[in-house]
Amino acid sequence: MLTHLDAQGRATMVDVTDKLPTAREAVAEARVRMLPATLQLIVAGGHPKGDVFAVARIAGIQAAKKTSELIPLCHPLLLTSVKVELEACGDDGVRIRARCKLAGQTGVEMEALTAASVAALTIYDMCKAVDRGMCIESLRLLEKSGGASGDFRAS
Question: Which parts of the sequence belong to the Molybdopterin cofactor biosynthesis C (MoaC) domain (predicted)?
Fold first, then answer.
């Protein structure tokens, strides 16, 4: 059984030494709700700070690679692929999807969730001067595959 507690009940990193490496993949999603005018500014490429989607994409990829430095007890992983996709959603939002892959001994759910959340925070940071009422919402794991715990797909 995997646990973050040792025999004395202290927090510890899970020992994955005896686990066989397998192909693993996870997809996470976040949404940022904003004023329609803010979304129009982003989509039109007229934001004074530059291409909001491009900067958020890079921020998400960098965050996935640094997850073990941000989340206590996460394993440092050698990711083989990180993709962050952003798209306008309706007239007042952005949908962010982050997909992480590797062949390893532990999953990449936290990396995908971290990528999506940091991409959302980057959008907020770049747009807060024009829209302080933005709301980051619906951060969730959409799917994962590989590993002993089996596959998962959100309903």
Answer: 13-147
Name the helix (H) or strand (E) containing 153.
strand 152-153
Q: Residue range 138-152: average pLDDT?
A: 93
> Which of 52, 54, 78 shows the shortest CA–CA distance to 64?
78
pTM for this model (two decimals): 0.91
pLDDT at site 1: 46
**Annotated catalytic, 6?**
no
Distance CA 60, CA 119 (A): 5
> Annotated binding site for substrate, which residues?
73-75, 110-111
**Is the pLDDT higher at 144 or at 72?**
144
The active-site residue, picked from 15, 125, 131, 151, is 125
